[in-house]
């Protein structure tokens, strides 16, 4: 019988087993790509007045150790979202009505051993007026077994940052952004880098998060990693 990795996401939510794949595959098989399977669960608790609808990615990869490491990171994101939701409910106290958590994701890129995933978390707490939306990202290089940072993509990170800020100021007036937050929350695809930007509150707009795609050619492609992702070089 194959080994099972048993992960406790949160007390009271049960077991979610992940089956480990066989190892020892050839290197050329590894280069074929990354498989991502959609997993989901929902839970309704009438006593505590909440509803959860959660979707999360399960990565399939020929190298067992790498697959295990990536899935632990992704499942940790899910567990933290659930934990934060329940903690906020406790802080707000009891109110009539239903609180809800919806967590979903979209795969932006999954080639050349690079995985880029966009998560969206929507929460509504009973007693509050508005739904809260949070968008965040997960970028991982399976060949190096490390999270991809903005600095990994460019030889001169500061020049690349300057080009990003100039592009935003030139094309998206009215958006507000903090440098550190901007360059730690981004996605990747063949067209360019997708930044998550906070939108200013204006009469014609509602405040929230805006996703801005900046093409590779606007920032510059000068590393092997960036060239591998950039669709123009494939």
User: Kindly, what is the distance between the CA atoms of the first and last residues, rounded to a whole number of angstroms?
Assistant: 41 Å
Secondary-structure content class = alpha+beta
Oligomer: single chain
H and E string: EEHEEHEEEEHEHEEEHH
The CATH class label of the largest domain is Alpha Beta
Radius of gyration: 20 Å
How much strand?
35-45%
Largest sheet: 6 strands, mixed
Mean pLDDT across the residues is 80
| Uncertain residue ranges | 1-31
Q: Count of helices?
A: 6
Q: Looking across the biggest beta sheet, what order are the strands in? A: 3-4-5-6-7-8
Topology-level CATH name of the largest domain:
Heat Shock Protein 90
Shape: flat
Kindly report the name of the CATH homologous superfamily of the largest domain.
Fervidobacterium nodosum Rt17-B1 like
Overall structural domain count: 2
The CATH architecture of the largest domain comes to 2-Layer Sandwich
The number of distinct β-strands equals 12
Helix content: 25-40%
Write up what this structure looks like.
It is a single chain. This protein has two domains: 1-148, 2-Layer Sandwich (Heat Shock Protein 90), CATH 3.30.565.40; 150-234, no CATH class. Helix content is 26%, strand content 38%. It has helices spanning 27-30, 64-92, 157-171, 179-182, 216-219, 224-229; strands at residues 4-8, 15-19, 35-45, 50-60, 99-111, 114-124, 132-141, 146-147, 175-176, 186-188, 192-199, 208-215. The chain has a six-stranded mixed beta sheet, with helices on one face. The radius of gyration is 20 Å and the shape is flat.
């Amino acid at each position: 019988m194959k080994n099972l990795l048993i992960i406790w996401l949160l007390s009271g939510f049960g077991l979610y087993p992940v089956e480990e794949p066989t190892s020892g595959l050839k290197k050329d098989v590894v280069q074929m790509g990354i498989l991502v399977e959609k997993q989901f669960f929902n839970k309704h608790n009438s006593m505590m007045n909440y509803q959860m609808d959660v979707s999360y990615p399960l990565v399939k990869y020929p190298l067992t150790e790498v697959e295990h490491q990536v899935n632990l990171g992704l499942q940790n994101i899910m567990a933290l979202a659930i934990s934060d939701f329940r903690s906020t409910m406790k802080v707000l106290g009891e109110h009539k009505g239903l609180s809800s958590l919806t967590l979903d994701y979209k795969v932006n890129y999954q080639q050349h051993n690079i995985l880029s995933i966009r998560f969206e978390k929507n929460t509504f707490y009973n007693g509050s007026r508005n739904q809260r939306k949070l968008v965040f990202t997960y970028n991982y290089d399976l060949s190096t077994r490390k999270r991809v940072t903005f600095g990994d993509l460019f030889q001169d990170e500061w020049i690349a940052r300057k080009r990003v800020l100039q592009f935003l100021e030139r094309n998206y007036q009215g958006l507000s952004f903090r440098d550190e937050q901007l360059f730690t929350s981004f996605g990747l695809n063949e067209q360019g880098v997708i930044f998550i930007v906070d939108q200013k509150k204006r009469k014609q707009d509602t405040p929230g998060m805006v996703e801005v795609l900046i093409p590779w050619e606007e920032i510059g492609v000068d590393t092997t990693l960036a060239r591998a992702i950039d669709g123009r070089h494939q």
